[in-house]
Amino acid sequence: MNEIIRISNLTKDYGEGRGIFDINLTVNKGEVFGLVGINGSGKTTLIRHLMGFLKPQKGYTSIMDKDSWRYASELKKHVGYIPGEIAFPEVKRGIDFFKLQAEYLGIRDFSRANELIQRFNLDADAKLKRMSKGMKQKSAIVNAFMANSDIILLDEGSTGLDPLMQSELTNLVKEEKQKGKTIFMSSHIFNELESSCDRVAFLKNGRIIDIVDMNTIRGNESVKEIKIEFIGESDFSNFLSRPFNIIREQTEFNQATILIPDKDINELFNVLQNMNVRFITQKPRTLEAYFKDKYNDAEAV
Ligand SMILES: Nc1ncnc2c1ncn2[C@@H]1O[C@H](COP(=O)(O)OP(=O)(O)OP(=O)(O)O)[C@@H](O)[C@H]1O
User: Which residue ranges does UniProt annotate as crossing the membrane (predicted)?
Assistant: First the structure.
């Protein structure tokens, strides 16, 4: 089975424009799929539907062809999950929590859990109530990955981790991908998504405004994104009539942004030498830059 996650016409309307609206996407086996959006854009609401904690108002979500809401308790045994807000059961220490979880999931071999505890440098004997934010997050990571589940959902999985531990989590995600696991993760950290995801969806006001294939961002190093501001309107409009791939025009500033293959750069300078240019800059083609452009361009909904 290639398709692991399906989200179909999913809507949860909390009123006053809050919630998620008409979300459609699928995630295939072995894919790492990222979800990015500003605070309140709907990431947690979407992931909680996938886990079967919330009942859709319209549409549905399914994992391995099983409706998330109907099969919620079964799915919880097969999906590793880091919630956006971590709440522990009423047990004393980290290790008690892992043992309880192992019992629930039928895990007898504790070696994977021990390996993760060591890897994330976690004191599993510490009292859960006294743990720092980062320690709680590490406990949630151990809990999500200890069962070797084939499907893993991370809602801001690296929240509260220091930069070293953040990159450890990214490495873990990459290793799991190598093993053929399917991972769905939300994050505010572009680096984290950039280095591990195959595709990334952008959420704005509860709607998907774009889904980008990371290969189109990573693989485009021979194409540059260049922004030029002209001193006069006439040079600006003259430039717009030239055969460049213009991806953005900001008329109020006489600015044009183009995508240009390296081999055509001389042609660009030939055209510009007879024009009055205020500045010319090269924009890095990062996920963050792509996201900001999309976010600004998307109509308010
Ligand atoms: N139970 C609820 N009742 C009413 N409104 C809600 C409820 N849950 C979420 N919302 C609203 O839905 C919107 C999406 O919230 P959600 O928590 O999914 O966003 P998010 O992208 O995960 O945000 P963050 O990055 O801050 O975690 C927000 O406007 C939020 O206030």
Answer: none
Q: Where are the domains of the chain?
A: 3-217, 222-284
Q: What is the CATH number of domain 3-217?
A: 3.40.50.300
Q: Is the CB of 37 under 6 A from ligand 1?
A: yes
Q: What distance, in Å, lies between the first and last C-alpha atoms of the chain?
A: 36
Q: Is the CB of 39 under 6 A from ligand 1?
A: yes
Q: Does 42 sit in the ligand 1 pocket, CB within 6 Å? A: yes
125 Cβ neighbours under 8 A, 6+ residues apart: 93, 94, 95
Query: Which residues, other chains included, contact 29 with Cβ-Cβ below 8 Å and sequence gap of 6+?
Result: 1, 2, 3, 4, 180, 182
Residue closest via CA to ligand 1's atom 30 equals 40
Question: Mutation test of ligand 1: which of 7, 11, 16, 18 has the most ligand atoms closer than 8 Å to its C-beta?
Answer: 18
Query: Cα–Cα distance between 11 and 55 in angstroms, integer?
Result: 10
The per-residue pLDDT for 301 is 37
The model's pLDDT over 14-41, given as tens digits with 9 standing for 90+, comes to 999 899 999 999 999 999 999 999 888 9
What's the predicted TM-score (pTM) here?
0.83
Is residue 163 a contact partner of residue 4, using CB atoms and an 8 Å limit? no
Whether residue 204 has its Cβ less than 6 Å from ligand 1: no
- Is the domain defined by 222-284 classed in CATH 3.30.70.80? yes
pLDDT digits (tens, 9 = 90+) for 177-192: 999 999 999 998 888 8
Classify 59 as helix, strand or coil: strand
